[in-house]
């Protein structure tokens, strides 16, 4: 059983492209988290949200509670955005991640 | 200095050995977690602790035990390591008192464990 599903699993983009990563979940939430994991392995928190939309620089996260769906958008993608992006519900359920590669 | 540290960072051991992974934090957070990460499976929760006297099993606790020695320290033990426990292990902390209902997590750098 997968309480959190992400798509796509892998994504390759040209520098400058607009990127969308999707997350669907089947459990009740207090908060949904988007995490970034770089090739060295370290994990950092990008967003936490329980409703609406949040924006940090070129990154935007949205959530639709009724549809149990969240999206992470990256505008004007850059090679330094290359990483694995992980969706997590509360602290207990994690997606398998989306591996993003941005080509110069 | 890093707020959440893990030791060792890499460990190779043999089947049947007892292994302890240690996590320390300077963030003053009450909540601490242990996860393992396997290719294609994502992060899975092993144990979590909401304060020094509180220990809870996660999704995959079999074969593991933990000790919360102090607010700042949370150790994970493999009593008798087996090859399918080869994985990347992460410790994390959080505290809803400081981040509200969102309960932001802060992760350690990870420990790469190989069981031969």
Structural category of chain B is mainly beta
Q: What is the β-strand count of chain A? A: 11
Largest sheet of chain B: 7 strands, mixed
The Cα radius of gyration of chain A reads: 13 Å
Low-confidence stretches of chain B: none
Give the percentage of residues in beta strands of chain B: over 45%
Distance between the termini of chain A: 38 Å
Q: Give the overall silhouette of chain B.
A: globular
| Average predicted local confidence, pLDDT of chain B | 92
Identify the quaternary structure here: heterodimer
Shape of chain A: globular
Q: Which sequence of SSEs, written as H and E, runs from N to C of chain A? A: EEEEEEEEEEE
Q: Which structural class do you get from the secondary structure elements of chain A?
A: mainly beta
- State Rg of chain B: 14 Å
Helix content of chain B: under 10%
Cα distance spanning the termini of chain B: 33 Å
> Count the helices of chain A. How many?
0
Describe this structure in words.
The complex is a heterodimer of chains A (104) and B (116). Chain A is mainly beta and 104 residues long. Chain A has strands at residues 4-7, 10-14, 19-25, 32-37, 43-49, 52-56, 59-64, 69-74, 83-89, 93-94, 98-103. Chain B is mainly β. Helices cover 3% and strands 57% of the residues of chain B. Chain B is built from one helix and eleven strands. In chain B, a hairpin with a 3-residue loop joins strand 4 (31-38) and strand 5. Chain B starts with a strand and ends with a strand. In chain B, 34% of the residues are buried. Chains A and B meet through strand 5 of A and strand 4, strand 5, strand 9 and strand 10 of B.
Write the layout of secondary structure elements.
The complex is a heterodimer of chains A (104) and B (116).
Chain A: E1 4-7, E2 10-14, E3 19-25, E4 32-37, E5 43-49, E6 52-56, E7 59-64, E8 69-74, E9 83-89, E10 93-94, E11 98-103
Parallel strand pairs in A: 2-11
Antiparallel strand pairs in A: 1-3, 3-8, 4-5, 4-9, 6-7, 7-8, 9-10, 9-11
Chain B: E1 4-7, E2 10-13, E3 19-25, E4 31-38, E5 42-51, E6 54-57, E7 64-70, E8 73-78, E9 87-94, H1 96-99, E10 105-107, E11 111-115
Parallel strand pairs in B: 2-11
Antiparallel strand pairs in B: 1-3, 3-8, 4-5, 4-9, 5-6, 7-8, 9-10, 9-11
């Amino acid at each position: 059983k997968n309480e959190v599903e992400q798509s796509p699993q892998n994504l390759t983009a040209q520098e400058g492209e607009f990127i969308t990563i999707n997350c669907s979940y089947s459990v009740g939430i207090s908060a949904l988290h988007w995490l970034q994991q770089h090739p060295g392995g370290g994990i950092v928190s990008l967003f936490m949200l329980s409703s609406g939309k949040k924006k940090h620089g070129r990154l935007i996260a949205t959530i639709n509670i009724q549809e149990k769906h969240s999206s992470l958008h990256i505008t004007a993608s850059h090679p330094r955005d290359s990483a694995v992006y992980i969706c997590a519900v509360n602290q207990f359920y994690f997606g398998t991640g989306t591996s993003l590669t941005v080509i110069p | 200095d890093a707020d959440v540290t893990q030791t060792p960072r890499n460990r190779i051991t043999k089947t049947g050995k007892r292994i302890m992974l240690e996590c320390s934090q300077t963030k003053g957070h009450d909540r601490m977690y242990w996860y393992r990460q396997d290719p294609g499976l994502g992060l899975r929760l092993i144990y979590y602790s909401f304060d020094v006297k509180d220990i809870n099993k996660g999704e995959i606790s079999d074969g593991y035990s933990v000790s919360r020695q102090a607010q700042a320290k949370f150790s994970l033990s493999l009593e008798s390591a087996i090859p399918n426990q080869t994985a990347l292990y992460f410790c994390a902390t959080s505290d809803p008192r400081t981040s509200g209902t969102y309960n932001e997590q802060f992760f350690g750098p990870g420990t790469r464990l190989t069981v031969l």
